[in-house]
Design a protein that fits this description.
It is built from one helix and no strands. By secondary structure, the protein is mainly α. The N and C termini lie far apart (51 Å).
Length: 99
């Protein structure tokens, strides 16, 4: 995967003169939203915890293009389902211990 040395928050136009022409897109992703980035798009992510829940989570899933998007979606849903089931089980156990 190609990598860029440009810091989008502090662009060094002396070192990268063409960077002055960059026009970034800014998106705010909220609870329940999904942001799709096409493969090999350069991007930067900044996160802040939820004011009510006090945490934040992001999932970055790279998949082999040979299998196609349905394979990736299937694998992602299976893995997320496993994580959610495990978390639900842990929450349930902690509630039972607290009573």
């Amino acid at each position: 995967t190609p990598w860029t040395e440009i810091d989008p928050l502090n662009v060094d136009t002396d070192r990268f003169p063409l960077a002055k022409y960059l026009q970034p897109y800014v998106a705010t992703v909220r609870q329940g939203d999904i942001l799709y980035l096409p493969s090999l798009w350069y991007h930067q992510v900044m996160q802040e915890p939820s004011r009510t829940a006090g945490y934040t989570a992001a999932v970055n899933y790279w998949y082999d293009m040979d299998f196609g998007p349905l394979y990736a979606a299937s694998e992602l849903s299976q893995r997320l389902g496993s994580i959610l089931t495990a978390n639900r089980s842990e929450s349930s156990d902690s509630l039972q211990c607290g009573t």
